[in-house]
Amino acid sequence: MSVPPQIPTEALLAGVKSHLGHAGDVRIRKRKPFRMPRGGTGSYFEGVELQIDGENVPAVLKLGRMTGGPPTREALFFGRYSADSPMRTPRCYGVGELSLTRDTWVLMERMPRGKRVSDWTLDETREALCNLASLHAMHLGNVTDDLPRPFTRDLERWLSFVPEGVRQIRSVFDAYPKLPRFASDRALDFLLALCARPEVFREAFARSPQTLLHGDYHRANLVVREGQPQVAYDWQFACFGPPAYDLAVFWNTLGLTTRRGLFGLVDVLEVGERCLSWDEVKDVYSEALRRLRPEAEVDAIFGCSDEALAWEIARQVTYMGPVMAESQADRLRFVYRDHRTIGGLAIRLLGIENVFRLYRTVFAEFEERAERLLKSKSTT
């Protein structure tokens, strides 16, 4: 088990005062680590009771701690970009010392629970695409050096992490024969072949305008409440790149929903048909983008759609391999080797097997896409 990070309360207070430009009374009344970490990437979370000039402010402390892959820049996004974002984000109260080489902590607004994805309306899904277009429109063509640029300047470095992710996924498959095979050997071989030929990605992404990307934009990372603006959180993959990439992430996860289970005590993951086709996703986004930036080169944006969809699989594998082999190893051992009866009941109860079904779908789609990209490039 990893040791929780030690972030002194004095450092949190200094970060809040610096970020807010506040010279008044700032106190931290209580800190409590979350019992169950959110997500599966190893990030550390605390609930924090913040007090600013006598007003109690519920907040969440997050420190991204990815177990593999390139370092993330969530704190840098919140420290420099979130305040002016046209897309609603959790309010940032403070960040640690910002760096271009590592991530640090973020103290942000604690968001209320939103709708389950299964309760979203089709209009709310379309609204999410329009909000994404507003983010892209604001930064289209304005690329700076502080956030990563994995699709252009940093491309080969980012791809260099993929082979280790593939190796770790294969090692996990070998160690746990009962673990669902969500990615075929053929799909993983195609991924390695694409990573060995970075020009396939580079030439396509070079033709697209670049903008600020959320980097992990899907409905489970949005808070939706009736009569209120949607709120996008989990910005640890923020970077600059082609707009089509954010849409690729959104599209790949459109079939994933949740429903209430076990007397309302837990959320069960489910997978169904995507509520919008890829063409419909592009149409909704394009219409919103053109309203804000009539000069936007929509054809150039979508000219790298296949490459963006393939890149999303590369990102997933980059982080999925270390997560499965390291930070989630105890859980996998419990469920798929040591306590398969109890573990099997738990994963059925929570719908975890449905997530594997989703991954089987997107990896199968990737196989066809990767084969097409490799063949197309070999004939040019």
Q: Please, what is the oligomeric state? A: single chain
The end-to-end distance, rounded to whole angstroms, is: 50 Å
Task: Name the average pLDDT.
Answer: 91
Strand adjacency order, main sheet: 1-2-3-5-4
Overall, the morphology is globular
N to C succession of SSEs: HEEEHEEHHHHHEEEEHEEHHHHHH
Residue share in helix: 40-55%
Radius of gyration: 21 Å
Q: How many distinct beta strands?
A: 11
Q: How is the biggest beta sheet arranged?
A: 5 strands, antiparallel
Number of helices: 14
The fraction of residues in strands falls at 15-25%
Low-confidence segments, ≥5 residues, pLDDT <50? none
Question: Which structural class best describes the helix and strand composition?
Answer: alpha+beta
